[in-house]
Amino acid sequence: MSIFQSTSGVSVNPDVQRTFQRLSEGKELRYIIFKIEDREVVVETAVTQDHLALTVDDHEDNSKEAFSLFVDDLRRRTDGFKDCRYAVFDFKFTCSRVGAGTSKMDKIVFLQICPDGASIKKKMVYASSASAIKASLGTEKILQFQINIICYLFNQLIVQASGVKIDASCKKAYDDLHNKHLHSYIIFRISDDDTTIIVDKIGEKGAPYSDFVEEIRKSVGNGKECRYAAVDVEVQVQRQGTDAASRLSKVIFVQYCPDEAPVRRRMLYASSVRALKATLGLESLMQVQASDLSDIDEKAIKHELMSHQRT
């Protein structure tokens, strides 16, 4: 078995790889916590599914109970998150996608945990030694997270492993806007339970751009929330070699996350946007990432669109 060593001189005990292989092959392990001890990454604990004694169906619960027990174990071993650790967790969840039904899935995730309460020296040692354990485990094929605030982790796992669902109404509304120009804008939001992107507001056909800006202002609640939007913007483009101007209607995509919004909300919207873009087919649109109403100023948006359309 290969011996892996980091640039910091920390090596990886061969038992790390052997134990991870047991988990990845589905042989009763649910999570493993690793620590650096005497300049070597070692297995601190390997917990079985039976040891957790869960009281609910793991997939239906989206691993909430199992993850809570994992966090409690991690808290004890790090003296209240005052030390760093690596870990792998077998995340079980139910995934529902539009048109594909519901299925039970498993995803192994690798965690590099360096809490704010840990010393700078510890953080540096774990950061510089991460490449060695990643090489040992072969983590290029599994999800990886570097975290310093443990309370944000579960939402990240839910979003990136299972994917926030896209409600069917989003696709229908977008197709009506993009293909038929039946709406002037659509504002999307993530549902209150953080599981689904839904339609928040639809602008009537012919409504001025200022209506969209006003609805965004109201929907984010004094900067405490985030939103996505698709907006049908009409511009006049001067074609080279002609005196005539052409009227064009172009749809843009807006990801609006105010700086004042809680970090958790910004993280949730940032990590969920890819699913929305893929489902609706937004990749070809002009993309606007905004944190203030000035970022979606009508004149600035139209100027940018016109510069893209000049031929």
UniProtKB/TrEMBL annotation:
PROSITE patterns: ADF_H
GO MF, any single term: actin binding
GO terms of biological process kind: actin filament depolymerization
Record's keyword annotation contains Nucleotide-binding: no
Keyword Transferase: no
Segments forming domain ADF-H: 9-163, 163-306
Keywords assigned: Actin-binding
Residue ranges of the TM segments: none
A GO cellular component entry from the record: actin cytoskeleton
UniProt similarity note: Belongs to the actin-binding proteins ADF family.
The protein's name: Actin-binding, cofilin/tropomyosin type
Organism: Toxocara canis
